[in-house]
Each structure stands twice: as C-alpha cells, then as structure tokens.
Amino acid sequence: MYPVVPGHEIIGEVVAAGAKVAGLKVGDRVGVGAQVYSVYTYNYKYADGAVAYGGYAERVRVSHHYAFRIPDALPSDQAAPLLCAGVTTFAPLKRLGVNVGTRVGVVGIGGLGHLALQFAAALGAEVTAISTSSNKADQARQLGATKFLLFNDDAAIAAAANAFDVVVVTTDQNDNDWARMLSLIDAGGKLLLLAAPNKPLAVPALAVLFGQRSIVGSLIGSREVEEATLAVAAEHNVRAWVHTLPLDQVNQGVQMVRDGKARYRVVLTTTH
C-alpha cells in the first residue's frame, strides 16, 4: 500500500510514553518486531484505517505490549534481527521440545539458519549444519554445530538416514529436494519449515507416511516467546552476525543480500 515505510526489526529509545504504558519508560532501549499491535509493523492498517509505518521512519508509535526491553548484554545491531528472525527460529524449537540430546539438523546457513544453529545449541541439542556449500563448515561450527553434512553428497546423506529428530529448513530455494530432507528424519520426527519457497512443496507422500513424520511450519511468536528469545540470547551469547551500514546506504545493503554476500544480516544504523 503505497506510500510504504518498511522495516520490522527495530531497536531504538522510548522518547514518549502514554499514561497507560506499563513496564517501559522514556529512555529505555527497546525493540519492535513484526507486530506493533495485532497488525503488521508496516504496510498494514489499524482497525481505524490508520497506516502502520515501519522502522525506516524517524519515529514509530506502537502499543507497549509489542515493545520489548533489550537486555544490556545484547548490542543493538546484533539484537535487532532477533526481533523477527530470532523469534521465528527460537519459538518452534522451544515448542517442539528441543532440549539436551535432541538431534537437530539445520538446512541452510543464512539469515535464519545461522540463528537456528545458535538457538538449538543453546537449548542443549546435538546440532548438525546441513548445506550445499562446504566452505561454510567452519562458520557452522563457530555457530554451535558439532557436525556438518554436505547436502549434495549422496553417500553422506545415505549414511545420515533417520539421524535427526528435527530438521529445520531455512532455505527458500524452489528446487529443494524434500524427499532427501525427509529421509534424514527418524520415526516420529519433524520437518520444520521456516522458509517460504514460491512453488508448492513437492513432497512424496510415502516419505511422510513411513516413519510417521510430520511437516510443521512457524512464523514469529507471542509476546512471551519474544521475551524468552531475548533472554536466552543474552544468557547463551546468541548473536546475529551482521554487516552494519548507515541508513542512506540501504540500496547497497539490499544488493548485498541479492548477491548472496551478506554474512548473515545487514543492519542499518541511524544517529539522531
């Protein structure tokens, strides 16, 4: 809905607070994710028809229920992506009961995947990074993976059959080999879809039926889960890996993403 002001992973300072605001005060460092009320943070309308404008604006007005105090341990640039990408990866891992000993594979080491690796490790899981790029193995281990599986290595994939309780898919490639991914999941396990390929999923039914595997999806999370995401990140040193650019270089940042050069998030900074 033009004109549109985008941005839905925002960190800033409270500069004004209404009389009914609870738990926050002027001067607090807070974050805002993909919701500012029960509407999206940008490109959406409130019930009264007012337009929601996002984080590229000079000021953002939100309900205090959707603004979260940022723990002191989290630098703003590394914490900002946790407000959407972070909660999107943490919430389903927690909901699926990932804990000590859970065998988790993460497909795709990118903007979502590098956070999924860290959160799974923070929850105590046995974490394996799964990628088509062997040059990401060292970075994956820095992010908490104890093993690395090359997805296009037929022998390695065959050897890893039924090796995981949860396989997290963070890559939105349209040619994802879903049968190959499902073969990695043990009986009763879950394929957790966090990416959104443009094409419908071509999933072989027998790969789901045998082993009683499930396919589940997830996107962002509740206020309580957002708070838990930030708390776990602060306690377990979960950090987004970021490139920082001033806001007026946003087009350069977008091009970095298009070119696949972002490792792994581009964060825009402003000074007022």
TrEMBL record:
A GO MF annotation of the entry reads: zinc ion binding
**Which Pfam families would you find in this protein's record?**
ADH_N, ADH_zinc_N
Read off the Gene3D superfamilies from this record.
Answer: Medium-chain alcohol dehydrogenases, catalytic domain (3.90.180.10), NAD(P)-binding Rossmann-like Domain (3.40.50.720)
Q: Which UniProt keywords apply?
A: Metal-binding, Oxidoreductase, Zinc
Q: Which SUPFAM superfamilies does this entry report, sorted A to Z?
A: GroES-like, NAD(P)-binding Rossmann-fold domains
| Record-annotated Alcohol dehydrogenase-like C-terminal domain positions | 111-231
Does the keyword section mention Oxidoreductase?
A: yes
In terms of domain of life, where is this protein from? Eukaryota
Q: Per the database record, which ranges form the Alcohol dehydrogenase-like N-terminal domain?
A: 2-72
List cofactor names only: Zn(2+)
The entry sums up its family as follows:
Belongs to the zinc-containing alcohol dehydrogenase family.
The protein's name in its UniProt record: Oxidoreductase, zincbinding dehydrogenase superfamily protein
